[in-house]
Amino acid sequence: MKRAEEGMAPPLDAGDAVRTASVAMGSTPAMDVLVLDAGTRQSLVTMRSLGRRNLLIAAMETFRNAPAFSSRWCKARFVCPAGYATDTYLRDLEAALDRTEAPLVIPSHDGTIALLRQHRERLERRAKVALAHEPAMTIAVNKERTLAIARQLGIAVPRGVIVTAPGDIPDALKEIGLPAVIKPCESWVGGEGRGARVVPRLVTTPREAARVFAELTRFGGATLFQQFVGGRREAVSLIYSDGEFYARFAQWAQRTVPPLGGDSVLRQSIPVPKDIGDESERLVREIDLEGYSEIEFRRDRAGRPVLMEINPRLSASVEIAVRSGVDFPFLLWQWASGVPIDRVGRYRTGGWMRYLSGDVRGTIETIRQRGRPGITPPSRAAFDFFAAFVRPMGYDYFQWRDPRPALRATAGFLRLTLSRVLKRELASLGRSSHGRRGGDDDTPAVRARRAI
Q1: Of 4, 282, 414, 422, which is most buried with the most CB atoms under 10 A?
Q2: What distance in Å separates the CA atoms of residue 62 and residue 72, rounded to the nearest whole number?
Q3: Domains of the chain
Q4: Cis preceding-peptide flag for 170 (omega within 30 of 0)
């Protein structure tokens, strides 16, 4: 382990690393970890967690203004202006590993994980990838396979039908009913040279279902039509290794973005409910999903938990666990590094965390979607948004000891808001606008917008 020093270096285009290595390596210390996806909240949390323990952290992203790049703990920065479904990103990642000599890579974005899995054997000649082994990952990233195993274990899952062609939609809706939720079987779908992270969508009519199906499958892949379960969203996070659980944590999400399923933006730590705690452990043990995982449930009208999905990577909402006393990024580092893993028996409950820019976007979407199933009425949504300011809570990005990422995220949010206002003004002058897509193209510009 190398001891961290204070100071910041300017971002480096990762592709330049090979050409400058012979000059730069003499003055650049080797790193302990390369944290990918520096634009995500969980990557910043990881950087702070490991940096506080005197580990040297390098970070990589596809755009320069990632909030984590400005953290006091970020000692080397690599920018690859290419999408994840490209050979360029892979080459730049290898160049960054060669320059930093980092023995461990921690990813947090579905697109990165898809790339790492595709080239895992090649990459692990340089560094360990902090992901579960491939048989478990193959199940965990695929909703159809995950839910099939859950059914075998007697865990409740939504009624669902796999749809691969437009002609299957009428029969699927006949079986599932409306409203329904359409999800990709895997959150990341890739095309030639491009890819997208695709999120679930609620549909209320056959026509809307056909349109959403076309949008979600524009890069290929199958979709899962599911019954709509709109109750309380709860999640259990675990660290599992060699048949043992080392840490458990639970939270519930009061608000998300998008409003009916997505990133948790206002959440609270809770004791692990016995029902979903037991079911989560049974599922993880059956899959043999080592490392970190988050298992998400929804409560139905009777209060019964219904499994939604399992995430085999650090989740965007992980900071609430860290602030509550369960430092999942450090536990993940211990597991991936092969050192003894700390056991965490208790944590603080009742604490709140808020992702403010996400809460702004989610509240606006809630108002725009008024009247749709499961959507809070506009007046209540606005009241709840402002009422949250008087409730004591922590805020994503902000730490007194490391304030620069919050300042950068705020500046990015303001730039994005101004840009959208200008676009609406141009549209009002007669410029046409495009309809909403089922997923975000994996371009640096889109990744930069998601980072705030």
Answers
A1: 4
A2: 20
A3: 1-130+415-452 (3.40.50.20), 159-227 (3.30.1490.20), 234-273+283-402 (3.30.470.20)
A4: no
Which are the contacts of 42, defined by CB distance < 8 A and separation ≥ 6?
108, 314, 315, 316, 318, 319, 329
- Kind of pairing, strands 194-198 and 188-191? antiparallel
**390: helix, coil or strand?**
helix
DSSP-derived 3-state class of residue 236: strand
Query: Helix, strand, or coil here: 79?
Result: strand
Distance of CA 92 to the CA centre of its chain: 22
With b meaning 16 or more CB within 10 Å and e meaning fewer, what string describes 212-246? bbebbbebebbbbbbbbbbbebbbbbbbbbeeebb
Please report, for residues 150, 176, 253, 325, 415, the alpha-carbon distance to residue 278 in angstroms, rounded to integers and kept in the order given.
12, 28, 20, 21, 45
Q: Pick from 390, 428, 396: which is nearest to 409 by CA?
A: 396
DSSP string, 245-308: EEEEEEEEEEEEESTTSSEEEEEEEE---HHHHHHHHHHHHHHT--EEEEEEEEE-TTS-EEEE
Write the DSSP symbol of residue 63. S
Query: For the purposes of burial, counting CB atoms within 10 Å of the CB of 267, is it exposed (0-12), middle (13-18) or buried (19 or more)?
Result: buried
CA-to-CA distance for 99 and 51, rounded, in angstroms? 19
Query: Can you read off the two tokens belonging to residue 296?
Result: 């998400």
pLDDT digits (tens, 9 = 90+) for 168-177: 999 999 999 9
- 18 pLDDT band (50/70/90 cuts)? very low
What tokens were used for 120? 């895992």
**What are the phi and psi torsion angles at 363 (to 5°)?**
-65, -40
Q: Which helix (H) or strand (E) holds 17?
A: helix 17-24
Distance CA 222, CA 203 (A): 17
Segment 29-59, tens digit of pLDDT: 799 999 999 999 999 999 999 999 999 999 9
Tokens for 161, please give them.
Answer: 């039908």
Distance CA 128, CA 429 (A): 53
